[in-house]
Protein backbone atom coordinates (compact mmCIF):
# COMPACT_ATOMS: atom_id res chain seq x y z
CA UNK A 1 0.00 0.00 0.00
CA UNK A 2 1.22 3.48 -0.82
CA UNK A 3 0.34 4.70 2.67
CA UNK A 4 2.89 2.36 4.24
CA UNK A 5 6.09 3.98 5.47
CA UNK A 6 9.31 2.07 5.89
CA UNK A 7 12.55 3.17 7.53
CA UNK A 8 15.58 1.28 6.30
CA UNK A 9 19.05 1.16 7.85
CA UNK A 10 21.95 -0.20 5.83
CA UNK A 11 25.35 -1.33 7.11
CA UNK A 12 27.47 -1.42 3.97
CA UNK A 13 30.65 -3.44 3.57
CA UNK A 14 32.85 -4.46 0.65
CA UNK A 15 31.14 -7.79 0.01
CA UNK A 16 27.92 -7.86 2.05
CA UNK A 17 25.33 -5.25 3.03
CA UNK A 18 23.01 -5.74 6.00
CA UNK A 19 19.56 -4.22 5.53
CA UNK A 20 17.09 -3.68 8.38
CA UNK A 21 13.61 -2.20 7.78
CA UNK A 22 11.12 -0.87 10.33
CA UNK A 23 7.51 0.12 9.79
CA UNK A 24 6.00 3.39 11.04
CA UNK A 25 5.34 1.83 14.48
CA UNK A 26 8.99 0.82 14.89
CA UNK A 27 8.46 -2.91 14.35
CA UNK A 28 11.19 -4.65 12.37
CA UNK A 29 9.58 -6.16 9.31
CA UNK A 30 12.72 -7.15 7.38
CA UNK A 31 16.32 -8.07 8.07
CA UNK A 32 18.31 -9.39 5.15
CA UNK A 33 21.83 -9.84 3.84
CA UNK A 34 22.63 -9.02 0.22
CA UNK A 35 25.72 -8.71 -1.90
CA UNK A 36 27.04 -5.18 -2.24
CA UNK A 37 25.92 -4.94 -5.85
CA UNK A 38 23.42 -2.67 -7.58
CA UNK A 39 20.98 -5.38 -8.59
CA UNK A 40 20.95 -7.12 -5.20
CA UNK A 41 20.41 -3.93 -3.21
CA UNK A 42 17.68 -2.63 -5.53
CA UNK A 43 15.83 -5.96 -5.44
CA UNK A 44 15.75 -5.82 -1.64
CA UNK A 45 14.49 -2.23 -1.57
CA UNK A 46 11.84 -2.83 -4.24
CA UNK A 47 10.35 -5.55 -2.06
CA UNK A 48 9.10 -2.78 0.26
CA UNK A 49 5.85 -1.48 -1.25
CA UNK A 50 5.29 2.02 0.03
CA UNK A 51 7.14 5.16 1.09
CA UNK A 52 10.74 4.16 1.76
CA UNK A 53 13.28 6.20 3.74
CA UNK A 54 16.88 4.93 3.80
CA UNK A 55 19.90 5.76 5.97
CA UNK A 56 23.51 4.62 5.86
CA UNK A 57 26.84 6.01 7.03
CA UNK A 58 29.21 8.14 4.99
CA UNK A 59 32.01 5.98 3.57
CA UNK A 60 33.75 4.79 0.45
CA UNK A 61 30.48 3.46 -1.02
CA UNK A 62 28.26 6.38 -0.05
CA UNK A 63 28.40 8.45 -3.27
CA UNK A 64 27.72 5.39 -5.44
CA UNK A 65 24.96 4.16 -3.16
CA UNK A 66 23.31 7.58 -2.91
CA UNK A 67 23.11 7.91 -6.71
CA UNK A 68 21.83 4.33 -6.98
CA UNK A 69 19.00 4.64 -4.46
CA UNK A 70 17.89 8.25 -4.82
CA UNK A 71 15.61 7.70 -7.87
CA UNK A 72 13.85 4.71 -6.25
CA UNK A 73 12.99 5.91 -2.72
CA UNK A 74 11.41 8.87 -0.96
CA UNK A 75 14.47 9.90 1.06
CA UNK A 76 18.14 8.97 1.35
CA UNK A 77 20.04 10.14 4.44
CA UNK A 78 23.82 9.74 4.52
CA UNK A 79 24.97 10.36 8.09
CA UNK A 80 28.34 11.09 9.65
CA UNK A 81 29.79 7.95 11.31
CA UNK A 82 31.65 10.19 13.81
CA UNK A 83 28.34 11.49 15.17
CA UNK A 84 28.03 10.37 18.79
CA UNK A 85 24.33 9.69 18.26
CA UNK A 86 25.15 7.11 15.59
CA UNK A 87 27.79 5.23 17.55
CA UNK A 88 26.48 2.03 19.04
CA UNK A 89 26.79 1.67 22.80
CA UNK A 90 27.48 -1.75 24.26
CA UNK A 91 27.97 -4.71 21.94
CA UNK A 92 28.44 -3.88 18.29
CA UNK A 93 27.47 -5.91 15.24
CA UNK A 94 26.40 -5.33 11.65
CA UNK A 95 22.81 -6.27 12.49
CA UNK A 96 22.73 -3.89 15.44
CA UNK A 97 24.24 -1.05 13.37
CA UNK A 98 21.63 -1.42 10.61
CA UNK A 99 18.76 -1.59 13.11
CA UNK A 100 20.09 1.43 15.03
CA UNK A 101 20.24 3.53 11.85
CA UNK A 102 16.68 2.54 10.91
CA UNK A 103 15.40 3.43 14.36
CA UNK A 104 17.18 6.78 14.49
CA UNK A 105 15.91 7.60 11.00
CA UNK A 106 12.35 6.85 12.11
CA UNK A 107 12.74 9.11 15.16
CA UNK A 108 14.37 11.95 13.18
CA UNK A 109 17.65 11.65 15.05
CA UNK A 110 20.04 11.66 12.08
CA UNK A 111 21.81 14.66 10.59
CA UNK A 112 22.46 14.26 6.87
CA UNK A 113 25.82 14.73 5.17
CA UNK A 114 25.38 16.72 1.98
CA UNK A 115 25.17 14.71 -1.26
CA UNK A 116 24.04 16.21 -4.52
CA UNK A 117 24.99 18.52 -7.40
CA UNK A 118 25.83 15.80 -9.91
CA UNK A 119 26.95 18.52 -12.32
CA UNK A 120 29.93 19.14 -10.03
CA UNK A 121 30.94 15.49 -9.69
CA UNK A 122 33.63 15.72 -12.39
CA UNK A 123 35.25 18.73 -10.73
CA UNK A 124 35.13 16.96 -7.38
CA UNK A 125 37.00 13.95 -8.77
CA UNK A 126 39.56 16.13 -10.57
CA UNK A 127 40.20 18.07 -7.37
CA UNK A 128 40.64 14.84 -5.44
CA UNK A 129 43.12 13.61 -8.06
CA UNK A 130 45.12 16.85 -7.82
CA UNK A 131 45.22 16.75 -4.02
CA UNK A 132 46.29 13.09 -3.96
CA UNK A 133 49.14 13.77 -6.38
CA UNK A 134 50.30 16.81 -4.39
CA UNK A 135 50.25 14.71 -1.21
CA UNK A 136 52.23 11.93 -2.92
CA UNK A 137 54.79 14.46 -4.18
CA UNK A 138 55.18 15.97 -0.71
CA UNK A 139 55.62 12.51 0.78
CA UNK A 140 58.37 11.64 -1.71
CA UNK A 141 60.17 14.93 -1.05
CA UNK A 142 60.03 14.34 2.71
CA UNK A 143 61.51 10.88 2.26
CA UNK A 144 64.34 12.32 0.17
CA UNK A 145 65.08 15.01 2.74
CA UNK A 146 65.10 12.36 5.45
CA UNK A 147 67.92 10.53 3.66
CA UNK A 148 70.18 13.59 3.77
CA UNK A 149 69.10 14.66 7.24
CA UNK A 150 69.88 11.20 8.65
CA UNK A 151 73.47 11.57 7.41
CA UNK A 152 73.93 15.12 8.74
CA UNK A 153 73.99 16.58 5.21
CA UNK A 154 72.55 20.08 5.49
CA UNK A 155 70.18 21.55 2.91
CA UNK A 156 68.03 24.64 2.54
CA UNK A 157 64.73 25.19 0.80
CA UNK A 158 64.14 23.49 -2.53
CA UNK A 159 67.81 23.21 -3.54
CA UNK A 160 67.95 19.50 -2.85
CA UNK A 161 65.24 18.81 -5.47
CA UNK A 162 66.68 20.85 -8.34
CA UNK A 163 67.81 18.87 -11.37
CA UNK A 164 70.79 21.08 -12.29
CA UNK A 165 72.88 20.10 -9.24
CA UNK A 166 71.34 16.73 -8.47
CA UNK A 167 74.56 14.81 -9.13
CA UNK A 168 76.35 16.87 -6.49
CA UNK A 169 73.76 15.89 -3.91
CA UNK A 170 73.96 12.20 -4.91
CA UNK A 171 77.77 12.29 -4.67
CA UNK A 172 77.48 13.10 -0.97
CA UNK A 173 75.80 9.73 -0.35
CA UNK A 174 78.64 7.25 0.08
CA UNK A 175 76.55 4.06 0.47
CA UNK A 176 75.53 2.56 -2.86
CA UNK A 177 72.18 1.30 -1.59
CA UNK A 178 71.26 4.68 -0.15
CA UNK A 179 72.32 6.44 -3.34
CA UNK A 180 70.14 4.06 -5.37
CA UNK A 181 67.14 4.81 -3.13
CA UNK A 182 67.71 8.56 -3.52
CA UNK A 183 67.89 8.21 -7.32
CA UNK A 184 64.55 6.39 -7.37
CA UNK A 185 63.00 9.13 -5.22
CA UNK A 186 64.29 11.79 -7.62
CA UNK A 187 62.66 9.91 -10.49
CA UNK A 188 59.42 9.63 -8.53
CA UNK A 189 59.44 13.36 -7.76
CA UNK A 190 60.00 14.21 -11.44
CA UNK A 191 57.18 11.91 -12.52
CA UNK A 192 54.78 13.28 -9.92
CA UNK A 193 55.65 16.86 -10.89
CA UNK A 194 54.43 16.18 -14.43
CA UNK A 195 51.29 14.44 -13.20
CA UNK A 196 50.56 17.30 -10.77
CA UNK A 197 50.80 19.81 -13.60
CA UNK A 198 48.39 17.78 -15.73
CA UNK A 199 45.95 17.38 -12.84
CA UNK A 200 46.20 21.11 -12.06
CA UNK A 201 45.36 22.09 -15.65
CA UNK A 202 42.44 19.64 -15.86
CA UNK A 203 40.98 20.80 -12.53
CA UNK A 204 41.20 24.52 -13.32
CA UNK A 205 39.87 24.00 -16.86
CA UNK A 206 36.81 22.22 -15.48
CA UNK A 207 36.34 24.84 -12.72
CA UNK A 208 36.28 27.65 -15.31
CA UNK A 209 33.06 26.18 -16.74
CA UNK A 210 31.18 27.18 -13.57
CA UNK A 211 30.02 30.82 -13.20
CA UNK A 212 31.11 30.97 -9.54
CA UNK A 213 34.75 30.50 -10.53
CA UNK A 214 35.08 34.10 -11.79
CA UNK A 215 33.49 35.37 -8.60
CA UNK A 216 35.86 33.48 -6.31
CA UNK A 217 39.06 34.37 -8.16
CA UNK A 218 38.12 38.04 -7.86
CA UNK A 219 38.85 37.78 -4.12
CA UNK A 220 42.50 38.59 -3.27
CA UNK A 221 44.53 35.47 -2.41
CA UNK A 222 41.96 33.10 -3.94
CA UNK A 223 43.70 32.15 -7.16
CA UNK A 224 42.57 29.50 -9.67
CA UNK A 225 43.68 26.51 -7.59
CA UNK A 226 42.05 27.67 -4.35
CA UNK A 227 38.88 28.72 -6.19
CA UNK A 228 38.66 25.31 -7.86
CA UNK A 229 39.14 23.51 -4.54
CA UNK A 230 36.42 25.65 -2.92
CA UNK A 231 34.00 24.86 -5.76
CA UNK A 232 34.73 21.14 -5.53
CA UNK A 233 34.29 21.03 -1.75
CA UNK A 234 31.28 23.32 -1.30
CA UNK A 235 29.41 22.57 -4.57
CA UNK A 236 26.66 25.09 -3.75
CA UNK A 237 26.58 27.98 -1.25
CA UNK A 238 22.91 27.36 -0.50
CA UNK A 239 23.98 24.54 1.82
CA UNK A 240 24.85 27.21 4.39
CA UNK A 241 22.22 29.62 5.63
CA UNK A 242 24.71 31.81 7.53
CA UNK A 243 28.44 32.43 7.59
CA UNK A 244 28.64 30.82 11.03
CA UNK A 245 27.45 27.51 9.61
CA UNK A 246 30.13 27.86 6.93
CA UNK A 247 32.80 28.58 9.54
CA UNK A 248 31.85 25.41 11.40
CA UNK A 249 32.09 23.39 8.17
CA UNK A 250 35.61 24.64 7.43
CA UNK A 251 36.84 24.31 11.02
CA UNK A 252 36.95 28.00 11.96
CA UNK A 253 34.10 28.00 14.50
CA UNK A 254 35.00 28.66 18.13
CA UNK A 255 33.78 25.96 20.53
CA UNK A 256 32.60 27.12 23.97
CA UNK A 257 31.51 25.23 27.07
CA UNK A 258 29.42 26.49 29.99
CA UNK A 259 27.71 25.03 33.02
CA UNK A 260 25.50 26.35 35.83
CA UNK A 261 24.11 28.98 33.47
CA UNK A 262 21.31 30.05 35.85
CA UNK A 263 21.23 31.20 39.45
CA UNK A 264 18.66 32.35 42.03
CA UNK A 265 18.74 36.04 43.00
CA UNK A 266 16.22 37.25 45.60
CA UNK A 267 14.03 34.27 44.89
CA UNK A 268 14.03 34.81 41.11
CA UNK A 269 15.83 32.66 38.54
CA UNK A 270 18.25 34.71 36.47
CA UNK A 271 20.85 33.90 33.86
CA UNK A 272 24.39 33.99 35.17
CA UNK A 273 26.82 36.61 33.88
CA UNK A 274 29.64 34.05 33.80
CA UNK A 275 31.30 33.92 30.38
CA UNK A 276 31.47 30.52 28.67
CA UNK A 277 34.90 28.88 28.50
CA UNK A 278 36.55 28.79 25.07
CA UNK A 279 37.73 25.36 23.94
CA UNK A 280 39.44 26.21 20.65
CA UNK A 281 38.09 25.52 17.17
CA UNK A 282 35.70 22.74 16.20
CA UNK A 283 37.39 19.44 15.37
CA UNK A 284 34.90 18.05 12.84
CA UNK A 285 35.57 19.98 9.63
CA UNK A 286 36.47 19.87 5.94
CA UNK A 287 40.27 19.72 5.86
CA UNK A 288 40.58 21.00 2.29
CA UNK A 289 38.64 24.18 2.97
CA UNK A 290 40.47 24.88 6.21
CA UNK A 291 43.79 24.58 4.38
CA UNK A 292 42.57 26.87 1.58
CA UNK A 293 41.39 29.71 3.81
CA UNK A 294 44.24 29.46 6.34
CA UNK A 295 46.92 29.58 3.63
CA UNK A 296 45.07 32.44 1.93
CA UNK A 297 45.11 34.44 5.17
CA UNK A 298 48.75 33.59 5.85
CA UNK A 299 49.86 34.70 2.38
CA UNK A 300 48.32 38.20 2.50
CA UNK A 301 51.00 40.84 1.88
CA UNK A 302 49.16 43.93 0.62
CA UNK A 303 45.78 45.37 -0.32
CA UNK A 304 42.54 45.68 1.66
CA UNK A 305 42.99 42.30 3.34
CA UNK A 306 46.41 43.34 4.69
CA UNK A 307 44.93 46.62 5.92
CA UNK A 308 42.18 44.69 7.72
CA UNK A 309 44.77 42.40 9.31
CA UNK A 310 46.85 45.37 10.46
CA UNK A 311 43.76 47.01 11.97
CA UNK A 312 43.15 43.88 14.04
CA UNK A 313 46.71 44.03 15.37
CA UNK A 314 46.26 47.71 16.19
CA UNK A 315 43.16 46.88 18.24
CA UNK A 316 45.21 44.48 20.37
CA UNK A 317 44.60 41.13 18.70
CA UNK A 318 47.47 38.65 18.72
CA UNK A 319 48.94 37.69 15.31
CA UNK A 320 47.43 34.22 15.62
CA UNK A 321 43.94 35.52 16.37
CA UNK A 322 44.27 38.16 13.66
CA UNK A 323 45.09 35.46 11.09
CA UNK A 324 42.13 33.40 12.25
CA UNK A 325 39.81 36.41 12.02
CA UNK A 326 41.14 37.22 8.55
CA UNK A 327 40.58 33.63 7.40
CA UNK A 328 37.00 33.78 8.69
CA UNK A 329 36.49 37.10 6.90
CA UNK A 330 37.77 35.69 3.58
CA UNK A 331 35.46 32.70 3.97
CA UNK A 332 32.48 34.92 4.74
CA UNK A 333 33.20 37.13 1.74
CA UNK A 334 33.52 34.08 -0.53
CA UNK A 335 30.17 32.73 0.64
CA UNK A 336 28.45 36.11 0.29
CA UNK A 337 29.61 36.97 -3.22
CA UNK A 338 28.89 33.40 -4.36
CA UNK A 339 25.30 33.71 -3.15
CA UNK A 340 24.80 37.21 -4.53
CA UNK A 341 26.60 36.60 -7.81
CA UNK A 342 28.70 39.75 -7.44
CA UNK A 343 32.46 40.01 -7.85
CA UNK A 344 34.69 41.21 -5.02
CA UNK A 345 35.00 45.00 -4.71
CA UNK A 346 37.79 46.41 -2.60
CA UNK A 347 35.96 49.63 -1.76
CA UNK A 348 32.92 47.72 -0.49
CA UNK A 349 35.14 45.47 1.64
CA UNK A 350 36.87 48.49 3.17
CA UNK A 351 33.53 50.07 3.96
CA UNK A 352 32.24 46.93 5.67
CA UNK A 353 35.37 46.48 7.79
CA UNK A 354 35.83 50.13 8.72
State the main characteristics.
single chain; 354 residues; alpha/beta; Nucleotidyltransferase, domain 5; 5-stranded mixed sheet; two-stranded antiparallel sheet; 13 helices; globular
The coarse silhouette is: globular
The portion of residues assigned to helices is 40-55%
Radius of gyration: 26 Å
Quote the beta fraction.
5-15%
Tally of separate domains: 3
Spatial separation of the terminal alpha carbons: 62 Å
- The total count of helices amounts to 13
Helix-strand topology string: EEEHEHEHHHHHHHEEEEHHHH
Q: Biggest β-sheet: count, sense, barrel?
A: 5 strands, mixed
Number of strands: 9
Instruction: Report low-confidence residues grouped into runs of 5 or more.
Output: none
**What class would the helix/strand composition place it in?**
alpha/beta
Q: For the residues shown, what is the average pLDDT?
A: 91
Strand order of the largest sheet: 3-2-1-4-5
Task: Describe the overall structure.
The chain is an alpha/beta fold and 354 residues long. It folds into 3 domains: 102 residues, ATPase, nucleotide binding domain (Nucleotidyltransferase, domain 5, 2-Layer Sandwich), CATH 3.30.420; 90 residues; 127 residues, no CATH class. Helices cover 49% and strands 15% of the residues. The strands form 3 sheets. A 5-stranded mixed beta sheet has the order 3-2-1-4-5. Strands 6-9 form a two-stranded antiparallel ribbon. The chain has a two-stranded antiparallel ribbon with strand order 7-8. α2 links the parallel β4 and β5. α4 crosses α8, α6 packs across α8 and α11 packs across α12. The longest helix is centred in the middle third of the chain and has 32 residues. It starts with a strand and ends with a helix. The mean pLDDT is 91.
Amino acid sequence: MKDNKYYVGMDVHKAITVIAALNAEGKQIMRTLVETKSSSILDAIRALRGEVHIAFEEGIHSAWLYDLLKPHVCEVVVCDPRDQRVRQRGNKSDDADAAKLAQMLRLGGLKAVYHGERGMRKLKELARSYQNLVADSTRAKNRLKAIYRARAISYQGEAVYRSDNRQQWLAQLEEEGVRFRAMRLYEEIDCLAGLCEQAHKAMVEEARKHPAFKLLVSIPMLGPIRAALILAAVLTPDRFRTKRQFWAYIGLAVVTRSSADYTVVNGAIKKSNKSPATRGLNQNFNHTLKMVFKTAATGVRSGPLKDYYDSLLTKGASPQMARLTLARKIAAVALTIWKKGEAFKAEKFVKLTA
